[in-house]
Each structure stands twice: as structure tokens, then as C-alpha cells.
Specification:
Length: 430
């Protein structure tokens, strides 16, 4: 009896998904739970596992096809069933692996997985098939046309993560990818020369995540009366506190004591004093949220993502640091869930990790406020009539002027500044 592989139920905020990669070909044996196909939504990449053991009989959704919930992606036949894939089904498969063509091999028989060269250091595999790749690593391998069998995996069962791909690239003597002339067009269009030689251009489709980010940024600028106010923060006290307790903190809680946790705590304290900054506009109504769900902007291989810290006012500093660390790891591996990136009442973004000294962050609709952190620099400042050197950071608060007055926005940022410059305020709630 055959088994259908269907698109899983998508969250309310996600209407459809795009098929971006098949990990099995028609005729391949698969094990229950083994990832068959990746679907890209506006927010995350969903891995669709095999619902049962069997043989992949039909692939009904091509790479690049847009699908909705419950659509049939493929059909599985019981294990041991003889199956010959029809030629039309071959168009639904992922492009041939670079290692096959590089070795001059002909396409394999449908029931026989590709055999790497004897000298290739192949990582652990699922069911004897293709190497296990995390979504972020798979995208890099595809974009750079790499042979995954040459990349050692550091994850469980030899799973290859993005860091493994980067380490492999750093260690190669020859960094130019070896292009497969037959498979390359299916992966990405080759550079297209303009009128003059030596001026290459390459046109690639925008990912769904990038398109969604672009849409929301334009929406924020078109629908909100957005303004930005600036201030500067002296990090002397926080840095001293961190240097004094960072070893004990890490030993007790198993996580490093960073600066983001202090800013998250400071933001929550400021939001409690200025509820409008924690609010949003819904039609002709203003919604004042009685909870504090803080989004933390994270850069991932697919683009900017904003996972949400829920009920931050009930979290300890250690809980905040642990959760942020987990989010960062998931963002790199492409394993953040839709639920982890849905909602939020306020956002914090830190351009300082990339060296930004000052910027104007854009609102994350329908939120009404966002805090931008920047690089810390030693600068001369006046203190008690003396010029002293202090570790200073510029901070920016962008806000929706429709519901937040300038006085509230400026004072909100002042409260954040005071909490960071005197961390005891966070403990004493003053």
C-alpha cells in the first residue's frame, strides 16, 4: 500500500511554501523520519520527513514549485517493492550531485544510490544515502556547487553544519568551486556579461525570506510615522560587573555573561514605565500589551530573522542569555521554528557586532518601537569637569510617532541609558 507525503499544516501567518531541495530521488530507499524535502516559507525552512519506511515512487512537486498545506509532495511504496522511475519524474529530482559529474559518472540507476570515489572522505549518512546536511549548510553547498562528500561533519551522525562548510572552504588550497557544466544551470544562472567584456552580472531569484523582509521594511516606512532619537551610554559599570562575575556566572549557569541580557532587562524596565512603546496599532485601536515579548534580531545565512523572547519580565539574566545563545545557534543551522519568530511587542537589534557606530533601525510591524545597539568605542567624555576616557555606545530608538510622543520616546531611551549605566537599578527596581 502506498503512502503519500504531504505538505504539513502551515501556521496561520504562512500561506504557502516553496520546494527548494529534494534529498532523495525517485527509486531511492528511505527510512521513516529521514528528511525527504526542504520547504522554504516566509520565515523558516521546513524539513519534511518520510512518514514511513519505503521506496520513493513519485515526486510530484518540482524544485521551485509553490505548494500549500496538505498538497501531495511524493508517494512512497512499501520497502522491497520493485520500482522503475518514469522519465517524467526525473524532472522533479534535485540536480545531480556535483561529485557524480566531476567523476565522469553516468546518472545512477533509480534503485542504486551514487557511489563516491574510494578516496573521498564521506561523512556519516542516513540509510546509506546522501550526507546529512543542515539547511544552512545545504544552501551553501548548493550555491557554491560543492561536493558534500568532501566536507567532514561535526554534528550528530556526521551531520554537516554551516560552520563545517566554512571551515572546509578556509582549509582548501583552491577556493574556486569546480562547476558542473550540466548541473550548474539547474542551480544558478551563470554570470551574464553586459555589453563589455570583463563586466559580469549574475541574476538570482530573491529568497522568500529576503522578499518578506523587503516587504515588511517598505511597509514600516509607508504605514508608520517613524522617527528616531539617539543617546549614548557609558558601559563602564556593566563592563566592571561583567568582568567581576563572568567566570562565576558561566560556571553556575553554563552560559557566558554578555551585554545583550542587560539591555533586554533595561528595555523591559523602560517598557513598564512607558506602555505606549510596548503597544501597537490595530485599525483605529491602540493595543497596549500587558506582557513583554522581546524580539532579538539575528543574522542568519538566509537573511535577518527575529526570534522572540517570551515573557522576558519573568526571565532571569541567565535565562535570557541561554535563550539568545540557542536562538543564535538555530539561526545559523536554519532550524528556527515559525512559532519562535511569531509575535513580539518590541525589538532589539545590535549592529555593533558588525562594527556599526550609528544607524537608524527600522520598525518591525506592527510593533511601535525598536532599540538599536552599536559598537562600543573608548571616547573622551566630560566627567565632573574632567576629560576622561570611557567605553561609550550610541543607542537609537526608532518609534511610531502616531502613538508615541517625542517626550515618551526620548525618556524611554533615557531610562534604558540609566539602567545600563547603573545596573543596580535593575535589581532595586528604581
Amino acid at each position: 500500500m502506498s503512502t503519500e507525503v504531504r505538505v504539513p499544516q502551515l501556521p496561520e501567518s504562512v500561506a504557502d511554501a516553496t520546494v527548494i531541495a529534494w534529498h532523495k530521488q525517485a527509486g531511492d530507499s528511505v527510512a521513516q523520519g529521514q528528511t525527504l524535502v526542504d520547504l522554504e516559507t516566509d520565515k523558516v525552512v521546513l524539513e519534511v520527513p518520510a512518514p514511513a519506511d519505503g521506496i520513493l515512487s513519485e515526486v510530484q512537486a518540482k524544485v521551485g514549485e509553490v505548494v500549500t498545506a496538505e498538497v501531495v509532495l511524493a508517494v512512497l511504496l512499501p520497502a522491497g517493492t520493485a520500482q522503475i522511475a518514469a522519465p517524467v519524474q526525473q524532472t522533479h529530482k534535485a540536480a545531480p550531485q556535483p561529485m557524480q559529474m566531476a567523476a565522469g559518472m553516468a546518472p545512477p540507476a533509480p534503485t542504486q544510490p551514487p557511489t563516491p570515489a574510494a578516496s573521498a572522505p564521506r561523512p556519516a549518512q542516513a540509510g546509506g544515502g546522501e550526507p546529512l546536511l543542515a539547511p544552512a549548510a545545504r544552501r551553501l553547498v548548493k550555491e557554491l556547487d560543492l561536493d558534500p562528500s568532501q566536507i567532514p561533519g561535526s554534528g550528530r551522525d556526521g551531520r554537516i553544519h554551516k560552520g563545517d562548510v566554512v571551515a572546509y572552504l578556509d582549509g582548501r588550497e583552491q577556493t574556486e568551486p569546480q562547476l558542473d557544466p550540466d548541473a550548474a544551470p539547474a542551480v544558478a544562472a551563470p554570470p551574464r556579461l553586459s555589453g563589455e567584456a570583463g563586466r559580469p552580472e549574475q541574476r538570482v531569484p530573491m529568497t522568500r525570506l529576503r522578499a518578506r523582509v523587503a516587504e515588511r521594511l517598505v511597509q514600516a516606512q509607508q504605514t508608520a510615522a517613524m522617527l528616531t532619537t539617539f543617546n549614548e551610554v557609558d558601559l563602564t559599570a556593566v563592563m566592571a560587573l561583567r568582568n567581576k562575575y563572568k567566570d562565576q556566572f558561566e560556571k553556575k549557569h553554563g552560559v557566558r555573561l554578555g551585554f545583550m541580557g542587560f539591555f533586554v532587562k533595561a528595555v523591559v524596565e523602560a517598557l513598564k514605565r512607558f506602555p505606549a512603546v510596548n503597544g501597537s496599532i490595530d485599525g483605529n485601536d491602540i493595543v497596549y500589551h500587558g506582557y513583554y515579548d522581546i524580539g532579538v534580531a539575528v543574522s542568519s545565512p538566509r537573511g535577518l530573522v527575529v526570534p522572540i523572547l517570551r515573557d522576558v519580565d519573568q526571565m532571569s539574566l541567565a535565562d535570557i542569555e541561554k535563550t539568545i545563545g540557542e536562538f543564535g545557534k538555530k539561526a545559523k543551522e536554519g532550524t528556527l521554528t515559525v512559532e519562535e519568530m511569531t509575535g513580539g511587542t518590541f525589538t532589539i537589534t545590535n549592529g555593533g557586532v558588525f562594527g556599526s557606530l550609528m544607524s537608524t533601525p527600522i520598525l518591525n510591524p506592527p510593533q511601535s518601537g525598536i532599540l538599536g545597539m552599536h559598537a562600543t568605542r573608548d571616547r573622551p567624555v566630560a566627567e565632573n569637569g574632567q576629560v576622561v576616557i570611557r567605553p561609550m555606545m550610541y543607542v537609537a530608538h526608532s518609534y511610531d510617532h502616531r502613538i508615541i510622543d517625542g517626550r515618551e520616546a526620548v525618556t524611554f531611551l533615557v531610562v534604558v541609558k540609566e539602567c545600563i549605566e547603573d545596573p543596580a537599578r535593575l535589581i532595586l527596581n528604581v
